Amino acid sequence: MSGRALLDRYKATLSGLARKDRLRTLSTRSGLDFASNDYLGLARSPRLAEAVSVALAAGTPLGATGSRLLRGNDPEHETLEAKAADFFGAERALFFGSGYVGNFAVLTTLPQKGDLIVLDELVHASAHEGARAGRADVVEAAHNDAGAVDDAIVAWRVMGGTGRPWIVVETLYSMDGDRAPLGELIAVADRHDAFLFVDEAHATGVYGPNGRGLAHDLEGRDNVVVLHTCGKALGASGALVTAPGVLCDYLVNRCRPFVYATAPSPLMAVAAATALDIVADEPDRRERLAGLVALAAKRAEALGLAASGSQILPIVVGDNASAMALAQKLQARGFDVRGIRPPTVPEGTARLRVSLTLNVGEAGVSALFDALAQEWEYAP
């Protein structure tokens, strides 16, 4: 077999994706930002840049140079974790390299053999991957259906399950922009002596008192673990897991993605800590974003589209080719709107994911919906 023939099966897979209009390619930033998760416009914040510049001048290294348990535990990491625990109202916090790693780390470490993980069917791929790579039993529950979660736990008990249930959800879903029924879910968790693990990726910085997230009133409970990403509204990178101290100690000792990975850059710890200060000090950012959300909802409803009530507005087109063609038309008019296809979303629900950020203003939002009305042959 020739060397090139070794690549044939990969080429065949890519050709199959192309036939289904699911082939993905990379493209750089261009046009008005309706695609990023930089909701509060902090990624280019002068205050964030200045904090990193000052830290660098003071000798903070670019790289951690090792895992946290070796020489990679910098004061900047510990400062961020202490600030985050105080900010979110948790006992402890641990800093990971990304939200994906944080979800994977928690779900491969804390749920034990004999436990049950109940995943919302639309929870992030990193949670699905972590759950299935771990030792616990795994089932999926219908999206945002607390009754289905309860039923799954009851059925597991009937079948002889004796461990601890773990309920895993996002507080604000990344593709639909809808919220989890947290009140109902924590009631289910309490009723079954279960843990509730919530991913606040798209709510951190945007919702709750001082931007503490949608699960702010659950933080600090013994049966609640929360993930806050730093690479979305906080404008930096990495992720914070907030939890009871004993669970953080357990992660430090038993979590392979924490023990064996080089620690995140200390400069990113500085950036994330500064972002928490900005979120607390500048509530007008959340207010301005709420204004854009309200405007987009009004314009969407005028086109016969449903508003999500959040900064994530899905425009479901249906088939892959049509969704990507519409995205390309809007991109050609200067709007960075991306098409989302399966498997990221269910079959038949290919869509545009309109993300509202402070990188655009009201004029930009209105212009986008004017263009959408002209380019999409929709049926109100």
Distance between the termini: 56 Å
Which outline best applies? globular
Number of domains: 2
Number of beta-strand segments? 12
Strand order of the largest sheet: 2-8-7-6-5-3-4
Mean model confidence by pLDDT: 95
**Uncertain segments:** none
Helix content: 40-55%
The structure class reads alpha/beta
CATH topology of the largest domain: Aspartate Aminotransferase, domain 2
Q: Please, how many helices? A: 13
From N to C, what is the helix and strand string?
Answer: HEHHEHEHEHEHEEEHHHHEHEEEH
Describe this structure as you would to a colleague:
By secondary structure, the protein is an alpha/beta fold. It folds into 2 domains: 20-39 and 311-375, Alpha-Beta Complex (Aspartate Aminotransferase, domain 1); 46-281, Aspartate Aminotransferase, domain 2. It is built from 13 helices and 12 strands. It has helices at residues 8-19, 46-57, 75-88, 99-109, 125-133, 146-158, 182-191, 245-254, 256-259, 266-281, 284-302, 320-332, 362-375; strands at 32-33, 92-96, 116-120, 137-141, 165-170, 195-199, 224-229, 239-243, 312-318, 335-336, 338-340, 350-355. Strands 2-8-7-6-5-3-4 form a 7-stranded mixed sheet, with helices on both faces. Strand 3 (116-120), helix 5 (125-133) and strand 4 (137-141) form a beta-alpha-beta unit. Helix 2 runs antiparallel to helix 10 (266-281), helix 4 (99-109) packs parallel to helix 5 (125-133) and helix 6 packs parallel to helix 7 (182-191). The radius of gyration is 22 Å and the shape is globular. The model has no long low-confidence stretch (mean pLDDT 95).
